[in-house]
Amino acid sequence: MAGRKPVEWVKLDNAAKIFPPTSNERDTKVFRFVCELRDVIDKSFLQEALDKTMPLFPFYRTVLRRGFFWYYFESTDLVPKVEEEYKLPCSMLYHPNRRNLLFEVTYYKNRINLEVYHALTDGTGALAFLKTLLYFYITIRYKDDFKDGFPVLDYDASISQKMDDSFLKHYTDNRIPKKVKITRAYRIQGRRFIDNRIKVIEGVMPVKDVLNLAHKYGATLTVYLTALFIKAIYKEMPARSRKYPIVISVPVNLRSYFPSVTARNFFATINVRYNFGTSGDKLEDIIEEVKDCFNRELTQEKLQAHMNKLSALEHNAFMRMVPLILKDTVLRFANSLNDRQITATLSNIGKITVSPQLAPYINIFSCFTSAKRPQIALCSFQDKLVVSFSSPFTGTDIQKNFFRFLTNESVPVVISTNIKEI
Amino acid sequence: MQYCTHCRVKIKGENTVCPLCAGILDGKGDSNEEVFPFIPTIYQEFNLFIRVLILISIVVVVASFAVNIIFTKESRWSLPVAAGVMCMWVSLFFIIRKKNNIAKTILWQVGVISILSLIWDKSMGFIGWSIDYVIPSVCVLAMIVMAIGAKILKISVRDLIIYLLIDAIFGLVPAIFIIFGWLNVIFPSVICVASSIISLSALILFEGDNMKNELKKRMHI
Fold it and tell me: Do domains A9-148+158-170 and A199-348+369-417 have the same CATH topology?
């Protein structure tokens, strides 16, 4: 009889819990990883590679459903199908009451796109999936090149390690945190596109040039680009808004601070604040402030405290007994409070590495996310740094400022975009 | 590749102006370099149907009020018309909201129709037709539709269990009507209670484990 086998289901991890109630057409909470190969993509080989990847990531074959108290992932028989890119970038993947997979693999010319709903996993988790997919795709497509042995897949984790809810494992304290003070940040306004599409501007540049620039100021790449971003926003800021600080939210991969190789969410965000009302507008000043902030926030203790704060709510007996309908409202409200404290987001995926035999087939990696506010995502592969700007607004002044800062320092930048008309 | 002399950036693909500063570009674009497909603006088509329906509703309500005032001043027949239109919208609202889950939609309709019929009955002097006929028959109808619909649409029993369970439990409510003797016509309620008991027992006997798992999954705290 059909349906005899009990259905597998798992709870959402701590970070994922905020996404289902707050995702909508304007902010889909979907992000995309792109891998540009040297050759044009072959659909059937990609499908074959995807079929081989799926058993290694059983957790990805799930649909998101509503229970009475919480959302949960339920395993499904749906099979992911590779398609040529046909939708707007980062369009909705989770529709309430509809059962579909929470990720999608598409291709366009020589690019493989992996789009993932954020409740499923974070950037690092998705990257592990994409790398596995690439491994299979390249070894299938160019199998004649691998006659003397296949390369090694560099993601080493058992299935239970991939499924691991690392928040649960690493949180230590379940006291409800004290009230947090909400400080309003400057918020960028602008006209949106009629169909809520995001404008993606992708800039490819040599990583060496940007690193040299950062080192000139004694900063790391992330600190330097965060400071540039703050300055780019400042240039467009109306004078009367200068009393509000510019706050850049930076997601941090907790796997670098706590032992975990999970393919699910495991990140926290820190806020980098800069107030032009009280501090100078020179790049050096901004860099110093950002550097201090990173040093202050990026310690194991601080991140642990941050994680405990978020986990405490989830483990609170009263919160758990509240029906999901009410939870949704509460979480939506909490999210809008949180939004008020953020001007923009910058996430650095970092240096992406693949095994040396696979590298010659790959041109660049790129990533960007759905955006309710201007958002920068950066990642580097070999000697190329890709800075992707996604924004819900039609205006491009901040993007222009940002890239012009770099080109004025004679960094060669190659731009591509998804929206042609201004 | 094109080049913008103001921004000093090279630009991939075919562009009319610089994506950053909207300035004039040097060089000729090459559409082969494009990294995103062109996707035309998407307009929400779905809303048109709803908008037409809303306009029709407004016309009906306004026209009936107008005719009522002009020709039949002594009666108030336009009020029930307006109430009827409103009920249709309440029902439609839940259908649209839950449209992706058929079993859920059906169950919500059972609830909505039951409550609305009670209100109608009450406001018309409580003749009793809502508990005599409407509530028992929507319960039975929902059970039949869910069972047949699941077969036709190939929905697995597991996905239906919860909804069948709730419907069957709701189907026991007319037993209260019978016990307290509120009914004028008894046979629809008897049929409803009987089929609820049968379907509940069938569910427990054949899908007991599934039901337990399903409840555990959906009610986890």
Answer: yes
For A9-148+158-170, CATH number? 3.30.559.10
Give every residue of chain A whose pLDDT is below 70, as ranges.
1-6, 173-180, 422
Residues 129-188 of chain B whose Cβ lies under 8 A from any Cβ of chain A: 156-158
> How is chain B split into domains, by residue range?
1-39, 125-221
- Chain A within 8 Å of B81 (Cβ-Cβ)? no
The model's pTM: 0.85
Domain A199-348+369-417: state its class. alpha beta
Instruction: Give pLDDT tens digits for B9-19.
Output: 999 988 888 88
pLDDT at residue A177, rounded to an integer: 58
Q: How many CB atoms lie within 10 A of CB A120?
A: 28
Look-up: residue for tokens 């859920």? Answer: B104
CB < 8 Å to A98, chain B = 100-101
Give SS3 for A57: coil
Distance from CA of B53 to the nearest CA of A (A): 23
Segment B128-137 shows an average pLDDT of 89
Q: How far apart are the C-alpha atoms of A230 and A210, rounded to whole Å?
A: 17
